[in-house]
Amino acid sequence: MLENPINEIPELDESEFADDDIVTLLTADGEEIRFIEIAGIAHKGNFYAILQPEELIEGMNDDEALVFKVSRGENGQDKFEIVLDDEIIDAVFKTYNELLDNAQKD
Description:
The chain is of the alpha+beta class. It has one helix at about 85-105, and strands spanning about 5-10, 20-25, 30-45, 45-55, 65-70, 80. Strands 1, 2, 3, 4, 5 and 6 form a six-stranded antiparallel β-sheet that branches. The longest helix is centred in the last third of the chain and has 20 residues, at about 85-105. Residues about 1-5 and about 10-15 have low confidence and may be disordered.
């Protein structure tokens, strides 16, 4: 298991993101944390979201993001589970970086 499931992303201009790019998640103790959705990536039949906290979380740098597996919850809403498997995290960021490189070439 990966102890720190954080990866670096390019610097972002938060003014580029709309309200629908914001995901609010609850911690186990009920605290709300707002994230900017950087990308959605399909990998091996699952969907993953790369999320960056709006406000810096202790232990993270401002150019880092987390990977969450997205599925449907019992109530029909999206369910976000943090990914700790380093192979999945690496694969998701590899796909993201490839998409980013291709977009920059265009």
